[in-house]
Design a protein that fits this description.
mainly alpha; 8 helices; single chain
């Protein structure tokens, strides 16, 4: 089984840290687990675009995944899930809201004039 297959079988953020040998503070992971894993995925997609995943052997792939997990974890040690805004709900929370459509009713329609 390849490392990427093994990663897909993991069920918790802590499992990723354990498998890849990345040290972590459980309190940080408790608050930002989904955000850390999503950011790691973004970093891996960036490596995939650059061709690094395709050309990596198992040792290089392990090191790359561990590096991306550590980098993603560091992002949330220095920041917060709300500040990073990885998920749609967080992005929409600060997006400008369009003005509601307010129908125009002429005064003479109300007065019968």
């Amino acid at each position: 089984m390849s490392l990427l297959d093994e990663l897909q079988q993991l069920s918790s953020a802590e499992d990723f840290f354990e498998l890849l040998g990345v040290e972590y503070d459980p309190q940080v992971v408790q608050v930002a687990r989904l955000h850390i894993l999503r950011r790691m995925g973004q970093y891996l997609r960036g490596s995939e675009v650059e061709g690094a995943l395709e050309s990596a052997d198992d040792t290089e792939l392990y090191a790359l995944c561990a590096e991306h997990l550590a980098q993603a974890y560091a992002d949330f040690v220095a920041s917060s899930p709300i500040a990073e805004r990885l998920f749609k709900v967080h992005k929409e929370a600060v997006a400008p809201k369009p003005e509601p459509n307010r129908p125009f009713v002429p005064l003479d329609a109300l007065t019968g004039g």
